[in-house]
């Protein structure tokens, strides 16, 4: 379903709301992370009647909380977040974090994992600059634990050795969970770092997929926005292995 | 196999006279406990597995394998460890029905972390080694659902003879020494079930008709002491069995989960009920009974018949004169009633229940379904009562309730918290047959526990009319059911709590809400119709924090189950069947001889230990591929303190 966005708008924020119990997703269980995001955005846009905050340049879309967990008791919950960056600019990470806390309406997030833009030549200095922003949130006690995803072992060790607040999580792709590089395995073990899996593709939301979401008419293609950052948040019920909510916040930019 | 109360067993006549006493006080005990604990909330996930083992003695010179009647000695040693250090032992050991069986569980329950899935197999290995160390040189601890030649001449070690005219079993095939004697419960149950029924139990399982199997297949029972009772009971073309040991002497794989509150326990009880026949078919592991290849793959109906204490009147063979009810099922059978409000409309099988008890429960503020459930369990008489336990304080004790509860062996068990304990409302999942290796057993256990997490996270709905679940139960036991049968299964399992779905809530009871699916479609999915249980688990896992080793292990487990379901590799039952039929000594006459039995069990043990590779059974999921560990990684332990 093509979604009509005024031409003047250059930034689009979409928050899917809790998609955990979306029938469409359940019936398509097992699809990969990218397919799932595309599905969620499509559902959100198809349901969303009109933007709730609109000015000349930015638009915020938030899907209604269509799905309610009928939890009657006060549950001990914790929220984990992964931030996918398409560029390693400081402003972009800051924008994502600002929106995260605004959208989630939560005081503290348990963990944030950073999936930064992996170039071959990602410099430690660039990564440390991004890292210092996360450290700031930890210092303000807004985030409890921070980590990174898909990082070269040497770079990870450098990050660990050069940061003030140490990463306590490193995520690697599920495909290699049975063959983790030995150096990484040892380093995480020695330093009590959680070595976790993810099943996200390298490019979480490629342009071709956004084209699918926003309609794929050729003449419109140049107007299709580009991903700037994406957040996936997951809320778990502590010690019960149960998910309480899951959602995506996406920032798209149109030049 | 349930409550083990110590003491002096009463005779059947004494027990029978106290049947109403036990029922009345059992209900009072339930009421007290229920009202005290109804509002108990916020319990974390704890869970555990139970594995039953058979001790086999091999004679490598004569090529025989027999069940070794030494459980009492072994247990004494294993239990000593527990008594000396009850809080730190890594395993707990309990007696089982057979004098050749033991049951092992982890020392402590597992908790609510994904990392706990990675210690299940290591603990199973530990248990096996721990017990194995106590056995003699040619004795092996095996996880086989049924000892293939149970009830054949000289199947025990030491060898013993059956006594058809005296003793608790009075079987033509099973000597009473095969019953565990370390606790009086087992012999007492055997005697009382037989006496209550008024005749020996009678189990007839259709024989697998091979080229040279006599037709009709009939055995000479008179020469081994058969009387009118046995001659009337034995059916032609069936393998006839006449004792409790044939059923309760089988091994199962069970899991128990603690729910956060009673509501969640009722939900899990219901949601897992339709999965029972599916898991039974998938874990099928017992195609051979009393030395014959049969036409079934599962133990279920054998156990059901082995403890069928119903009188002729209760079975509907004679008009009701002295008994109260015609009862359609044995004490050991599938559940007949959903317990959650969501399940209520799917309760389409007429339920036999005690109306007086029902009314008593109702007037004490127990809701309709729970009252029915308990009044249904309580149509049964006690079949085992101990002198010391007749008179109890109903405000603190639960023995009379447990007496009836624990002798209702259904596919699911709803377990109230024990009095004065930290344990919450629990649900037990009971259909699975035990597999040959720890790898497979861990895979099944993790699969089922993961499913419970998936059901709760996505609020899935698997409910179909309970009559269809019953139909599935009988299909599940057929030969090669996992490959060839179609099972009733719900199509739209997505949560019905979304605003859009609420509109259609009335149509969810339509015939269209369920359809027939193969095990493969249920487990792996059917494009456009059903997502499949394994893809659902994958989705769930991708939303959880899973450490690499645990995820690697779980992937191996899911691969095994996926391939079993698709038929790429054999179920245990198919593998056993194939082994027998391909054996050079097999004469195509359905007979599993001593020699075949010996080779089968030696090979099974070889596969278990990794000495023999068996892609036909395990695929390329080599046992060494799982990354199971004895403990949870410190990095995970540090962050979460979910370990019970």
From TrEMBL, chain A:
One of its GO terms (molecular function) is enzyme regulator activity. Pathway: Sulfur metabolism; glutathione biosynthesis; glutathione from L-cysteine and L-glutamate: step 1/2. Residues 92-199 form the NADP-dependent oxidoreductase domain. The keyword Transcription does not apply. GO terms for cellular component: glutamate-cysteine ligase complex. It holds the Pfam family Aldo_ket_red. Keywords: Glutathione biosynthesis. Coiled coil: none annotated. Belongs to the aldo/keto reductase family. Glutamate--cysteine ligase light chain subfamily. Heterodimer of a catalytic heavy chain and a regulatory light chain. This is GCS light chain.
TrEMBL record, chain B:
Keywords: ATP-binding, Glutathione biosynthesis, Ligase, Nucleotide-binding. Pfam families: GCS (PF03074). GO terms for molecular function: ATP binding; glutamate-cysteine ligase activity. It catalyses: L-cysteine + L-glutamate + ATP = gamma-L-glutamyl-L-cysteine + ADP + phosphate + H(+). One of its GO terms (biological process) is glutathione biosynthetic process. It comes from the Eukaryota. Its EC number is 6.3.2.2. It is an enzyme of class 6 (ligase). SUPFAM superfamilies: Glutamine synthetase/guanido kinase (SSF55931). Pathway: Sulfur metabolism; glutathione biosynthesis; glutathione from L-cysteine and L-glutamate: step 1/2. GO terms for cellular component: glutamate-cysteine ligase complex. PANTHER family: GLUTAMATE CYSTEINE LIGASE (PTHR11164), GLUTAMATE--CYSTEINE LIGASE CATALYTIC SUBUNIT (PTHR11164:SF0). Belongs to the glutamate--cysteine ligase type 3 family. This is Glutamate--cysteine ligase. It comes from Acyrthosiphon pisum.
């Amino acid at each position: 379903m093509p979604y009509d966005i005024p031409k003047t708008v250059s930034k689009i924020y979409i928050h899917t709301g809790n998609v955990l119990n979306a029938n469409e997703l359940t019936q398509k269980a097992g699809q990969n992370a990218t397919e799932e995001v595309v599905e969620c955005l499509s559902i959100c846009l198809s349901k969303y009647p009109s933007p709730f905050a609109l000015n000349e340049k930015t638009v915020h879309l938030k899907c209604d909380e269509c799905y309610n967990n009928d939890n009657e008791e006060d549950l001990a919950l914790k929220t984990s977040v992964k931030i996918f960056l398409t560029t390693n600019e400081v402003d972009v990470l800051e924008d994502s974090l600002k929106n995260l806390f605004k959208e989630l309406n939560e005081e503290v997030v348990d963990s944030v994992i950073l999936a930064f833009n992996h170039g071959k030549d990602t410099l430690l200095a660039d990564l440390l600059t991004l890292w210092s922003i996360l450290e700031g949130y930890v210092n303000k006690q807004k985030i409890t634990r921070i980590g990174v995803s898909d990082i070269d072992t040497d770079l990870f060790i450098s990050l660990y050795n050069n940061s003030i607040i140490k990463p306590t999580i490193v995520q690697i792709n599920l495909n290699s969970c049975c063959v983790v590089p030995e150096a990484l395995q040892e380093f995480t073990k020695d330093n009590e770092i959680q070595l976790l899996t993810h099943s996200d593709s390298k490019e979480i939301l490629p342009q071709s997929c956004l084209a699918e979401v926003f309609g794929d008419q050729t003449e419109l293609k140049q107007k299709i926005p580009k991903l700037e950052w994406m957040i996936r948040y997951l809320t778990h019920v502590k010690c019960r292995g149960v998910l309480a909510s899951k959602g995506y916040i996406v920032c798209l930019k149109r030049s | 196999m349930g409550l083990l109360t110590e003491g002096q067993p009463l005779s059947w006549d004494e027990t029978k006279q106290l049947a109403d006493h036990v029922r009345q006080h059992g209900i009072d005990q339930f009421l007290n406990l229920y009202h005290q604990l109804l509002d108990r909330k916020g319990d974390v996930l704890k869970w555990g597995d139970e594995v039953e083992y058979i001790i086999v003695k091999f004679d490598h010179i004569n090529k025989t394998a027999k069940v070794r009647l030494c459980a009492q000695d072994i247990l004494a040693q294993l239990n000593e460890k527990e008594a000396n250090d009850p809080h730190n032992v890594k395993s707990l050991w309990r007696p089982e029905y057979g004098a050749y069986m033991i049951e092992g569980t982890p020392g402590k329950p597992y908790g609510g972390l994904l990392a706990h899935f990675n210690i299940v197999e290591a603990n199973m290995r530990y248990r096996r080694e721990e017990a194995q160390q106590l056995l003699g040189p040619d004795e092996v601890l095996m996880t086989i659902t049924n000892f293939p030649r149970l009830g054949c001449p000289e199947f025990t070690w030491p060898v013993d003879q059956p006594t058809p005219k005296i003793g608790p079993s009075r079987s033509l095939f099973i000597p009473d020494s095969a019953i565990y004697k370390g606790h009086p419960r087992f012999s007492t149950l055997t005697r009382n079930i037989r006496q209550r029924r008024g005749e020996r139990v009678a189990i007839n399982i259709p024989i697998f008709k091979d080229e040279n199997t006599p037709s009709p297949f009939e055995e000479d029972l008179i020469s081994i002491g058969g009387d009118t009772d046995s001659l009337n009971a034995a059916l032609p073309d069936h393998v006839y069995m006449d004792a409790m040991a044939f059923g309760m002497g089988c091994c199962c794989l069970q899991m128990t989960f603690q729910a956060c509150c009673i509501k969640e326990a009722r939900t899990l009880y219901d949601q897992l009920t339709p999965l029972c026949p599916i898991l039974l078919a998938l874990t099928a592991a017992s195609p051979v009974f009393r030395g014959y290849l049969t036409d079934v793959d599962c133990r279920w109906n054998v156990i059901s018949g082995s403890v069928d204490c119903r009188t002729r009147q209760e079975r509907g063979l004679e008009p009701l004169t002295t008994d109260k009810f015609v009862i359609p099922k044995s004490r050991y059978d599938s559940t007949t009633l959903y317990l959650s409000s969501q399940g209520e409309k799917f309760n389409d099988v007429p339920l036999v229940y005690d109306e007086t008890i029902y009314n008593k429960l109702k007037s004490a503020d127990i809701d309709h379904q729970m009252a029915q459930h308990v009044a249904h369990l309580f149509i049964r008489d006690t079949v085992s009562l101990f002198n010391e336990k007749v008179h109890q304080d109903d405000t603190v004790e639960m023995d009379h309730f447990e007496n009836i509860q624990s002798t209702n062996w259904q596919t699911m068990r709803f377990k109230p918290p024990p009095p004065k304990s930290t344990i919450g409302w629990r649900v037990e999942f009971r259909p699975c047959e035990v597999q040959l290796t720890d790898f497979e057993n861990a895979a099944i256990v993790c699969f089922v526990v993961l499913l419970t997490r998936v059901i709760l996270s996505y609020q899935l709905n698997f409910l179909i009319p309970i009559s269809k679940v019953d139909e599935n139960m009988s299909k599940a036991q057929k030969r090669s059911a996992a490959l060839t049968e179609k099972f009733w299964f719900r199509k739209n399992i997505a949560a019905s709590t979304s605003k859009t779905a609420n509109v259609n809530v009335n149509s969810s009871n339509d015939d269209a809400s369920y359809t027939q699916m193969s095990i493969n479609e249920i487990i792996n999915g059917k494009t456009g119709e059903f997502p499949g249980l394994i893809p659902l688990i994958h989705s769930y896992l991708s939303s959880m924090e899973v450490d690499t080793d645990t995820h690697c292990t779980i992937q191996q487990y899911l691969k095994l189950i996926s391939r079993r379901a698709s038929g790429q590799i054999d179920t245990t039952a198919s593998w056993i069947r194939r082994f027998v039929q391909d054996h050079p000594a097999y004469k195509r006459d359905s007979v599993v001889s001593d020699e075949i039995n010996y080779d089968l069990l030696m090979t099974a043990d070889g596969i278990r230990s990794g000495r023999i590779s068996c892609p036909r059974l395990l695929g390329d999921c080599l046992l060494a591929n799982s990354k199971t560990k004895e403990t949870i990684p410190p990095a995970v332990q540090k962050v979460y303190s979910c370990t019970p």
